[in-house]
Amino acid sequence: MSYKVGQRVEVPVKECQGVIAYVGFPSFASGKWIGVILDEPKGKNNGTVKGKMYFNCAENYGMFARQAQLILLDEAGNRTEPVSPSSAGSNATTPDDSGPARARSRLNSSRLSLTGSRTLLSAPSTESLSGSLHERRDGGESLIPAPTSTKRASFIETGFVETLKPQFVPGQAMAGSAVVAANLMEEKLSHMQLAQENDNLKSQVHDLTEKVETLRVKRMQDKERMKDFEKTKLQIEQLIEFKTKVMESQASLQRDLQRARQEAREAHAAREQFQEEMADLAETVEMATLDKEMAEEKAETLQIELEQLKDKLEEQTLDLEILRTEMSERAAGGGSATGASSYEIKQLEQQNSRLRETLVRMRDLSAHEKHEFQKLQKDMDQKKSEIMELGRTKEKLSARVEEMEHQIADLQEQVDAALGAEEMVEMLGEKKMALEEKVAELQEAVSDLEALQDMSDQLAESSKELELELREELDLALGAARDAQRHRDAALETLADRELTIVKFRELTHQMQEQYLQLQQRVQSTESTKTNVRGADQQLAEILDFQKTFAETRAQTKAVDLELRRLDADEARNHVCHLLSFMPPAFLARGGDHDAILMLLLIPRMTQKTEILISQVREKYRSIEKIDRASVIRGHSVAQYSFRSRLCSHMYSLQTALSCFESVLNSCSPEMLLKAGNAYPEMAAQEKSLDSLIELAKRDQLDENLPMEAIEKCCAYFATMFSVLFGESTAVNQARLIVNGTRTLGSACDAISTDATAIKALIQGEGGDIGLLCQHVETTCEVIQQHLKSARRRVPRDHAGPAFSVGANLGLDKDCNEQFSTSYQHAVKIVKTLQYLLKSALQAITENGDLDTGLPADKLKEMAATSSEKVYDTEDLGPVATIKASLTVIQQLAANLAQKMAECENELAISGQTQNQQQSLEGEQLTPILIRANAARKESEETKILSRKLETRDSDIREARLALREKQEELSEMTLRKELAEKRFITQQHEHEMNVEQLKRKLEEAQNQLKRKEKEFEETMDHLQTDIDSLETEKGQLKEKLKSIGKKTLSTVGADSIAGSTSLTSAMDNKYYVQEINALREALSNEHLQKKKIMCAVLRQKLDSLEPLSSPTSLKALDSTIQELRKKTTDLVKDVQKTLVYPTVPDLRRKLPETSYHYLLERRRNIMQLKERADELAAQVRREAIKRTPGGRAEANFAVYPNREMAAAMRERKLLAAEIKIPYNGPERSFSVNVGTQELRKIHTLLYY
């Protein structure tokens, strides 16, 4: 039984009823599906699947099902079982039903013979039987036999269950007594048979009811299993979603962990590198400090030596004065010792000179040492600054390492949580596997029931697809055969026509010859009698001879003209070849002047070829007056006129691009002309498409079957090349652009309206959307034609010629060329769409065989959809919307163009007059090729001038060579002088080296003497040190003696005298020691003073090197940040109280076990978020404290770090600095007092002093 839309059905799977809303083959699955609108929201969709709407209903009220999954209901809501005749026949032949079938046949036969008997078959038994059949069918066991619908109907026939009443006829009672007795016997026998058959049927019904009950129980169990299956399926889906979420979170955590580990490794590597650098810097600093100390020690020793040398100099000066006084005294005393005194004076002078030299050297050495000391001081300061910077970076890195360690710990916790989730996922996976096994068992039972139906559906679909493919192949083959037959018939017709014409011409010539012979014979026979006839014949012959001679002379003159033109062409070609042989290679190079000239010749040549093609196609195919169905289907005039319009539109489009090229090439710069000439070979290759069309026109083969792809590519190539080479050029002749552009769009509109009218003629009945579209296309094309004609009429004709290639600006936009190109592309797409639609419609009509009937609108709409999709591809919005949109673009351009031309018509007239005057005054404008020719001439003249200059340069070079020879001779003399000077320099250098060696020897002697003096100084220092040590030991001994003396008491007088003598000696010693102690104290105090001065200087230098203290200027901004931090703190405290103090209790009444686990995970996630917020807020407070503490931060590019003191102060706990106890008898109370150092000292003095 076939299901229809609107029938009510029951869906056993959903346990509800519904109405059929869709029957067919949807796109989301193979086979036949039935869409049902349910009475309850137990469905899966609203009639829309994968974006396609099959029917409309409320959400979750619609579903799709197979035919086997539905049970049809009648009008009363009862189930009706469709039964095929084959199944009825098979059931009728089963052995279980053979007895009841025979019994019913006997009942039917006996019912006709019985009169006056009553046979009652209860209706409940039949109803229970039908119910049992329904339940048996639902159980799915087809092996149990059951009565068919035809058998069941025999039980409830009206004639069988009605009460049969005996008919009494008067006058027949006595005669029919024997008949009545026989009837009674037969009635008893039939009653016995019926009772026996009734018992058999009752037993059979009892068995069937038991089987139905068992099947009903099994069905209920299957329903419960299906419910369990649905529940387990939902749980499995939830577990799979949870598993995917956990795996995604684990994967993200693993990625974060890997990233954190990588950053930790990088931080450790940076830390190790930093430690190595710090170790190297520490070593360098130690070396620098050692060098500094050594330099300081050396400077001190040199200073001491300098002072010693000064002392010695003073001693020597004193000795010198003493010697002088002695010499003066000796000179006064006598001249006996003059020789000795003069010798001593000389010796002293030598010593003084040596001492002066040593003094100078010591001064230089001290200055050098000072310089080195300052240099080392600077290096030490630089190293200190580097150490400080490295310390800051180390602190930054250490802080970052701590942050990374915290992140690693957090990530480790997350990984642990993920591992716990993995264990749970494994447990759930095991449960899922067990449930999947149960599901597999249930699915096997379901798949066995659906396999046969799916198999039949698949076979039906495959057979339908095969049938469709074979039909398509047959249609294609028939179409190809028809095309071949049509071409063969056309060829045979042309051959027959030509043969007929040849035969006719032959017959005509034969008749003319016979007439000629007859006329000659008549002339000869009737020469004397019929003079008038002879004159007429002679006149006719003269006329024929004149026409023949005129045609021969015209052909001869044409042949002579062609020969002369061929000679002129050959001569011009040879002339050009000879001229090119004189040209340089640069002229013939790619992109040179030769290509530019060929480009200038190519553009008008292609324009003339397009004009030839347009004239040929217009002469061949005339316009048509009426378009009807017969002319479209049986004739070719409509297709030929459409072909003419399409070809003319392509030719006019090509003329538009070529006119733009011509106008720009006549007004551009020479460099742009050469750039365009570089593309000449590609443009020359595009000319072949026009040549092929001209060849077809020569052979008269230019018909509607010609493909247009080549000429469309040619038009697109020139349009794109113009935009590539020149861009938005303003030198375009806009008048010619408007004329050619309007002609292009006009021809395209003719083709569009012709095709639309033809399609409209093919529609059978009401037009529908396609008919309205064709009507809209016709009216729109008429409007566009009117706009285009009005715009073309307003263009001045003198501006549209090639003489006005420059300056013919009509005030249009710069992108007018692109607008025409886009409109032409839209028109081509519309023409292609309509052509495809028309061809497919004609093909469908020819396939139907009935040429007098058209196509319905729906089928044409489907064809139009395929055609628009084929042409527009991704831009397709449906045939109606797409074609209307393209027509709107063309109409808008035509309307804007007509409006623009109407607005500037008067301005064009005025500007045309002024332009004519300017052109007459200014004369002819130079084209770029002429400019290039003038430049080439100038270059040739300049080459001649340069050749003359080169000749003069050669003479100058000869003179310069002569002068060069003279200079070379002078140079040789100078080299001789130089060699002599070098020899002198070598001798002087040798003398200088000798002097240096002598000075080095003297220096070594002075150094040796200095070393000897240093040794002597060291020996004296050692001696003095030993003296000092001995004195100290003696001092210690004396102190011990004094202590022992103070303790003892004098016992005797003799001892007093001894003590007196010893006291005198000890008193003397004590005075000596006291003086020495005072001197040492003074030296120690001086040493302390010097040390304090040095320390003050060092501290002052450090204080000066410190950064100035930063005063808080922006107090308002800081207060706002504090307020923000306070707000964040209060919010965080509220959230913590809400989460921890007031936790929410999960709903334990829910049956799903994962809700509590989900609540636990949600609570953990909230706690983790609160921890992160608390850490972030603490970090913000720490940063703000660092910023507010002057000198407590280290600036960096990406963060602010505290210095060591600030970090230590932030980490340390509050220490008990002091505790003040005040005597008080009352209860203990503590007061916090903020004091400074001075106040603390005052409190300390008040309490303890």
From TrEMBL:
Residues 81-96 have a biased composition (Polar residues). Its main location: cytoplasm. Residues 184-218, 243-472, 957-1048, 1160-1187 form a coiled coil. Residues 24-66 form the CAP-Gly domain. It is found in: Cytoplasm, Cytoskeleton. Keywords: Coiled coil, Cytoplasm, Cytoskeleton, Dynein, Microtubule. PROSITE patterns: CAP_GLY_1 (PS00845), CAP_GLY_2 (PS50245). InterPro entries: CAP-Gly_dom_sf, CAP-Gly_domain, Dynactin. Residues 106-123 have a biased composition (Low complexity). This is Dynactin subunit 1. One of its GO terms (cellular component) is dynein complex. GO terms for biological process: establishment of mitotic spindle orientation; nuclear migration. It comes from the Eukaryota. The gene is LOC106750282. The keyword Coiled coil applies. Residues 79-147 are annotated as: Disordered. PANTHER family: DYNACTIN 1-RELATED MICROTUBULE-BINDING (PTHR18916), DYNACTIN SUBUNIT 1 (PTHR18916:SF91). Belongs to the dynactin 150 kDa subunit family. It comes from Dinoponera quadriceps.
